[in-house]
Amino acid sequence: MGEKSRAGTTDDVETICNVGQKLTPTPCETYLQMLKQSKALRVAMVINIELSIRVCQMEVPATMANAIRTGNFRANSLLVAHTFSIFNVPYIDAVNMGSYNKTELNLLQSEGEGIPKEMVKKLADNKFKFPSVMHPLHHQFNNWYGVLQVCFGEGAIIAKEARAWIKHINQYESSYDACFKLDADFGAKVLGLVDLTFFQLCDTCLHAQSIEEVDFSAIVLSGKRLDILQNCFQVNKPAYLTLPPKKSHGLEGDETEEKDGKKKTKWLKGGGSDGSRFIDLGNMVKNGSPNADWKIQGLKYKQIFSPAVTATTPHFNATGLVTCNKWHCQGFCYEKCDHKASHKNFESASHKSAFDKWVKDLKAKNP
User: Fold this and answer.
1) Residue 322: beta bridge partners?
2) In 3D, which of 365, 126, 80 has the Cα closest to residue 238?
3) Tell me, what DSSP letter sits at residue 237?
4) Are residues 351 and 316 in contact, defined by beta-carbon separation less than 8 angstroms?
5) 195 forms bridges with which residues in the sheet?
6) Each residue of 294-349: pLDDT tens digit?
7) N or C: less crowded end of the chain, CB within 10 Å?
8) How many CA atoms lie within 13 A of 324 on its CB side?
9) What is the pLDDT of residues 139-191, one digit of tens each?
10) CA-CA distance, 236 to 193, in Å (whole number)?
11) What is the enclosing helix (H) or strand (E) of 282?
């Protein structure tokens, strides 16, 4: 983490912009391996091996592997999220990383007919996330750097730019940490900027008639890195993170059912236009020792904890784990909750104190 950075210097910009002089007429060797694969799952397996060699801690989604296999690197619009994106390579804690199970291995050897619906859904999911603290941001850039090396080679302009971000984060940790504390959306804005410039580079390549017409400076963000150091970083969140969600019809955002007095199972609407697809969040789990000062129930909980409020939830511990409001304030949650690791008492007095103040402030504003 102590390696010195040259990001932001004139020499660094010239080095990146002059990379066009070393272009090769064929894809890099690692990408040729992807093109030899007939299925996205095989691509995912090969690229995961390549990434592990590069010390990346992630699992490539099947959707991203398919985009790589077909050369689908550019989004059709800035208003929609694209599978080949830095947002789709989040840092995954080793204890939460999976592996190819027997069903998936069988799929790799077969034509894939008769795939269970559960497996289809799992393979169609993206891991579209952005960090809320500095440590995962560093890892997410490292994962993106690994993907870019595999797809375009170590000497590619975008790979060099990703490397410049990693070096910059390593050297100026305190500046990045301060930005996160001042702006909860800082991570989303940085990654959105990287996504935007990648789109712009792809766009200029698409419309160029010759290599001389390609604007390589579109990808260089040394000026924005300097803005971070000077505490004047100003970037908008990507449109696909700020657009309001489509209104659903029929069932509301969450539904529960209970049979014969057994635990409830929660289902979230999965986005199908006909309302037929649902996401199972598992059985209800109850908080056996809820804090009475944090208790907020019924409609009042839904009124207070809007998406904007939830986005400001304090961390549960030093790793950046976001606290589960439902568990601590409503007294129950579900087995497959994204924040299930926080379904227990606070072990850190400082984080507990921060959450306590946050909840009490919310209750005071919503008597």
Assistant:
1) 315
2) 80
3) P
4) yes
5) none
6) 988 777 888 888 888 888 899 998 888 889 988 898 888 888 888 888 999 998 88
7) C
8) 23
9) 999 999 999 999 999 888 899 999 999 999 999 999 999 999 999 899 999 99
10) 8
11) strand 278-286
Shared-domain flag, residues 303 and 332: yes
Beta bridge partners of 266: 256
pLDDT(255) > 70: no
Spatial separation of the C-alpha atoms in residues 316 and 337, rounded to whole Å: 15
Length of the chain: 367
pTM above 0.85, yes or no: no
Co-location of 280 and 317 in the same domain? yes
CB 190 within 8 A of CB 141: no
Q: Which two tokens stand for residue 66?
A: 């398919």
**Which of 242, 263, 295 is where one domain is finished?**
242
* Cα(330)–Cα(324) distance, integer angstroms: 10
Nearest in space to 147 (alpha carbons), one of 94, 78, 198, 210: 198
Instruction: Report the greatest alpha carbon distance in the chain.
Output: 71
Domain membership of residue 82 (yes or no) is yes
Whether the CB-CB separation of 145 and 162 falls below 8 Å is answered with yes
Spacing of C-alpha 358 from chain mean position: 25
